[in-house]
Specification:
Aminopeptidase; 10 helices; 9-stranded mixed β-sheet; 7-stranded mixed β-sheet; binds coenzyme A
Amino acid sequence: MAPEKQEKTVSSTNKLTAASFRELLERLALADGAGEEEESVIPKKFEEYKFWKTQPVPKFDDENDVEGPIDPNTNISAVPTEPLRMLKDFEWVTLDVCDEKQLTEIYSLLTENYVEDSSSMLRFDYSAKFLQWALMPPGYVKDWHVGVRVKSSGKLVAFISAIPVQVRVRDRVFERCSEVNFLCVHKKLRSKRLTPVLIKEVTRRCHLKNIWQAIYTAGIVVPSPISTCRYLHRSINWKKLYDIGFSPLPLGSSEEREIERFGLPKKTELPNLRRMEAKDVEQVCDLLTRFLERYELAQLFTHKEVEHWLLCGNPVSKGPVIWTYVVEDPETKKITDFFSFYSLPSSVSGNPKYNHISAAYLFYYATESYPRDGSDSAQEKYIHRLKELLQSALILANNFWNPNFFLLEQKHLISAIHYGKDVRHSTVTNHTIPHHFHFLYFNHPRRPQQTNQNLSNHLRGVFTV
Ligand SMILES: CC(C)(COP(=O)(O)OP(=O)(O)OC[C@H]1O[C@@H](n2cnc3c(N)ncnc32)[C@H](O)[C@@H]1OP(=O)(O)O)[C@@H](O)C(=O)NCCC(=O)NCCS
């Protein structure tokens, strides 16, 4: 690390502002060299995005300072009530994710065609139960589970979905917003411009519910990311990852050494850690809300949403989808920390020995130990706490279903469990799914958040999973 980076201080004052918090995050990322990632460059000019240039999204170099929708029109009566024209031989369908048969159809489409690595070796394999959990939060809109079928056979060949979310961008709260996800077009129908039709159709359906903003992520660069994240893997079952070609054997090391290096203890050491229960919902929601306040863009949660997203016992997510743990102060009974992780396996193709790898993904977390000021001791305390929480999450995930790796979506967290050399950057392999992903905000805000042609310089002020 360059000395000047080491010397970088968070703030000359002790007050932790949003800007100094951002500096802290950057410093955390730089601390282990994670800031030295390769640049991800914008692949083409804004004008070359045939579809996206027609949409209310900011240009890459848009430095307009005005907050607010790009397209201010919110006239529902002008929204077409009929779906967009579909390609000949295909038809729109609204899928019922409570219906086992239809849920299985979505599962099959995604499991065979969804996000994969560049060599098509690994592909996300969301379980049907996971899809129900992800698509049915409180207030979900059935009409936003949009599919395309082949007219003659009825086969489902494309899917896109949205769920309602509340988002805060700096000081402004958008109570009515949607999050678009699970965009998928069957491999045989690629490059036929079906994606713009799917996006326009789900947008139309959101407009009909008086929703005019959306947040979404994409593995490719579309105009214009408000933040960019990078997947980071912490191997757990190194041998299996090595066997399938995901992890390399570092020069000068041996298989035995790598296996030992990634080994985990069986027991967590963090005191007062226990599984989250229904009685914790209110406190967890409060802690999460306060924790997210220091990010410029974050999702806001109601108690019902916290229950849905974090509690294993609710009717939808019952089963092995999400695990949430809390730390409770035994005297005050206050929840001081929590973390959650979910299970998302990937299918493996072309390997004689394995057809799946399992993975745990870090989901939401929060801690009272976040730095309330810019002092070094506050930051050290925060980093130490994150380290304890993540180590516990790793051990618990490993004990539950022995995932092959633990995945972090927030770059600054890497330094928190980067003791020893446990954390593998995704650069160790080409088999990342996908390598970076970008947060986008449809029709707001006009002002990009510290946007820059060099995406790796983007603000990491976004916390939404
Ligand atoms: C993503 C996917 C639906 C794109 O389909 P496609 O057949 O390659 O693209 P189409 O011909 O239908 O449409 C091309 C347009 O869609 C845009 N597009 C492609 N992928 C996109 C994405 N993930 N998000 C938003 N827009 C996207 C392209 O930029 C292009 O628009 P442009 O002319 O303005 O640049 C398809 O590759 C797929 O199903 N991939 C696997 C699942 C996946 O990656 N889903 C996205 C999750 S992030």
